[in-house]
Amino acid sequence: MDGSLHFPVATAPAPGEVIPIAPGVLWLRMKLPFALNHINLWLLDDGPTWTAVDTGFALPETKAAWQQIFAAELGGRPIGRVIVTHYHPDHIGMAGWLTEHWQAKLWTTEKEWLHAIMMSRDGNEDGARLRRDFAHGAGLDDEAATSFAERQGNYRRGVPSVPPAYHRIGEGTAIAIGGREWRVIIGEGHAPEHACLYCAETGVLIAGDQILPRISPNISVQAHEPDGDPLARYLASLDKLRRVLPAETFVLPSHNLPFHGAHTRIDELAAHHHARCGDVVAACARPHSAAELMPVLFKRALDRHQIGFALGEALAHAHYLIGQGELDRATGADGVNRFLRKAA
Questions:
Q1: Which residues, at least 6 apart from 67, have a Cβ–Cβ distance to it below 8 Å?
Q2: pLDDT tens, position by position, for the chain (344 residues)?
């Protein structure tokens, strides 16, 4: 994939440094403690202040990188507003610290703020039991289910605090930043109400995780919505983005490099998921649990962190295919849900 995309800049900024990447937009990059080891963040010139878009995972290195930027890159102007695209820890993790440090408001969508609040308070045994039962139902054994429950319940590791109040944005919200209008386009599937920001004047989309150039964003069924169909919502969001964005929109993604070619990449992502669905249907000629579908979808070895994403992704594809009338689901005497191709 991505053979026809155009990447105008080949080298990313080091943590604590910035690169001008589009009119009025500075590109930052921060470290992540995962196999996907970085996140791109953005500073938008807003006249007397700056608007930050996404904040990074709460690590000492992230705080140090931000402080270096405060000292060297802001030209003596404060950060006046923090926009968060969605609730995942690498995006909202430092929002509490940043908004407090600058006495700035958090701007985000209602569902993302509520999910962040919910996840930051989910540290009790009821939540752990819910996640273990979910993992058992998906086919993980006791040890793997316990590991899944622990990792999925560790949200506050990357998000030590969530701002207690926020300014709500949503589909079509127009945000004036530095004399330009940025309009919110909502994506679903990867997160419940993911805010992308599009500036028609400059042809730039701050895409968050909704459109990534070299990997597909994780599309997962979650323990708190065990019958969800996030892949249907993600594919519908791709269709919407293709309709409203010009083909050669300059996409600023949260991971990998900025690129031109929004329509090309949207088409690649949709084709990728449809191909995966074909693999799942073929495998389900005999019953498969979500755990048994993971190696069908992921050929490489997965670490403990990735297994949680892979399990949710396997369920997302299976649930989508149930909705499309191609698979049935049955719960065995062992409590495990298994998926089987419908008879022709």
A1: none
A2: 455 899 999 999 999 999 999 999 999 999 999 989 999 999 999 999 999 999 999 999 999 999 999 999 999 999 999 999 999 999 999 999 999 999 999 999 999 999 999 999 876 677 889 999 999 999 999 999 998 888 777 899 999 999 999 999 999 999 999 999 999 999 999 999 999 999 999 999 999 999 999 999 999 999 999 999 999 999 999 999 999 999 999 999 999 999 999 999 999 999 999 999 999 999 999 999 999 999 999 988 887 778 889 999 999 999 999 999 999 999 999 999 999 999 87
User: Is position 337 within any domain?
Assistant: no
Residue 11 belongs to some domain of the structure: no
Asked if 68 and 53 touch (Cβ cutoff 8 Å), the reply is no
Would you state the structure tokens that stand for residue 243, as one six-digit string?
A: 């309709």
- What is the domain range of residue 39? 19-281
Q: Is residue 59 part of a domain?
A: yes
First to last CA, the chain: 32
> How far apart (Å, rounded) are the C-alpha atoms in residues 140 and 142?
7
Q: How many alpha carbons lie under 13 Å from residue 186 in its C-beta half-sphere?
A: 16
Q: What is d(CA 258, CA 230) in angstroms, rounded to the nearest whole number? A: 26
Q: How far apart are CA 251 and CA 66, in angstroms?
A: 23
Number of domains in the chain: 1
Alpha helices, DSSP H only, in the chain? Answer: 60-72, 89-92, 95-102, 110-120, 125-137, 142-152, 155-158, 230-244, 262-283, 290-297, 304-323
101: in domain: yes
How far apart are the C-alpha atoms of 258 and 40, rounded to whole Å? 9
pTM confidence score: 0.96
- The helix/strand/coil state of 130 is helix
What is the phi/psi pair of residue 110, to 5°? -60, -50
Tell whether the torsion through CA atoms of 83, 87, 90 and 96 is positive or negative.
Answer: positive
Quote the CA–CA distance of 161 and 68 in Å, as a whole number.
22
